[in-house]
Amino acid sequence: MGAIDRVASLQGGIVQLNAEYARVIDDDRLEEWPDFFAEACVYTITSIDNHRRGMPVGLMYADSKGMLHDRVTALRKANIYERQAYRHLIGLPAILGEDERGVRVETPFLVVRIMRDGRTDLFATGRYLDVIAETAGALRFRERVVVCDSSRVDTLLALPL
Amino acid sequence: MGAIDRVASLQGGIVQLNAEYARVIDDDRLEEWPDFFAEACVYTITSIDNHRRGMPVGLMYADSKGMLHDRVTALRKANIYERQAYRHLIGLPAILGEDERGVRVETPFLVVRIMRDGRTDLFATGRYLDVIAETAGALRFRERVVVCDSSRVDTLLALPL
Amino acid sequence: MGAIDRVASLQGGIVQLNAEYARVIDDDRLEEWPDFFAEACVYTITSIDNHRRGMPVGLMYADSKGMLHDRVTALRKANIYERQAYRHLIGLPAILGEDERGVRVETPFLVVRIMRDGRTDLFATGRYLDVIAETAGALRFRERVVVCDSSRVDTLLALPL
């Protein structure tokens, strides 16, 4: 039961981690986004259909912090953020368990997209499947699999979710 | 003040209860949905207009766990889940008080519907009016009245909210 | 570190404050809305574009509790609430710091609008930039700057966000 108690005490930290994660994306501080991940990490965006089929690679795939930085550089060059912004609403995390890699957590999300001209639409919903571990005194994602509810997201996808 | 302290300490548990409740619906594990209710329970979906008029029965009504199981069986036969899925975003619970039946809680929600072809729309918003009690060491709904903000929901309604 | 500990202990209270704030607006108990503010307060609604330019006055501006009461009286006379209602989904607060005025907090929000005929739309998203202080044993807003993500909100704006 000691492990379960420890997991429970992590909940406040996980909530803060998600709140900060959403802020760096929505505030256009993308350069800080990779800092939420461990050096060796997996970040991937997929759809529920691909995820159910066990397909390994989705709409976007990175397996190191360096690849996340590269992604940000590419987005800046393409001026993606000039044309749109996101607003994340992240739900309450369900802590599913813990193993030697970290704590496994599932958290629902909803992302609204705001275009430069003010048009607003419901861009994506889904859930984060995370493995979270403490490194150097802070919680970091070892794995964040973003499972979108709709397979229609892909063609529009630009910014991190 | 002892009762109020106890209510406050329940808040973490109520948040977890709602997170798990949303997951079984959104993950298509409908058969587990009745387990969130006490044996003798009330589950009803209504609109704010009906609720204000004090109308007793809404769009859906069940007063036992058995009726909830019957509802799931009917949904499976109709293959409702083949055609659509939900994503719940459940807000923060406001604890309103406590009496001999349990803790009275009000919690806002938003449900997005994802159709099989990927179309996504804002399906329903509203609030849960709950009576929650501890039975056999777990929090369970003795009463969950789902008050939808819009009276337009009814004709489309299929899955539990 | 004592200040940081105190800030952390405020988080539960801030969550409750936001939950209650949303309820008085969404339940059409507008007359209670000014009570969430200190006597000397700032409440303003602005857009991200105006906010970035440091423009002092936005779509709505009040610098006392009395002005908030006046606003409610005007809304009642115009029968705004007869025609529409809101549903707030308020995200998790990020506590940014504390100074002599109070605790600085940033919290994302999403507001859905429900028209009298049942039509529902995503009305506004954005974030609250707050200064929150304890007065007479309760947490109150000294400052609530509502920064809307879209500049399209203004022409439709009626109720408090």
Write the layout of secondary structure elements.
The structure is a homotrimer of 161-residue chains.
Chain A: H1 2-26, E1 37-47, H2 48-52, E2 60-62, H3 65-77, H4 80-83, E3 84-90, E4 94-99, E5 102-115, E6 120-135, E7 138-148
Question: Could you describe the 3D structure shown?
Answer:
Chain A has about 160 residues and is of the alpha+beta class. In chain A, about 30% of the residues lie in helices and about 40% in strands. Chain A is globular. At the A-B interface, strand 5 and strand 6 of A face helix 1, strand 3, strand 5 and strand 6 of B.
What does the average pLDDT of chain A come to? Answer: 86
Task: Indicate the multimeric state.
Answer: homotrimer
Terminal Cα separation of chain A, in Å?
34 Å
Unreliable stretches of chain A: none
Number of helices of chain A: 4
Largest sheet of chain A: 7 strands, mixed
The radius of gyration computed from the alpha-carbon positions of chain A, rounded to a whole number of angstroms, is 16 Å
Strand content of chain A is: 35-45%
SS content category of chain A: alpha+beta
Would you count the extended β strands of chain A for me? Answer: 7
- Write the element-wise H/E pattern of chain A from the N-terminal end onward: HEHEHHEEEEE
Outline of chain A: globular
| Biggest interface between chains | A-B, 19 and 23 residues
DSSP helix fraction of chain A = 25-40%
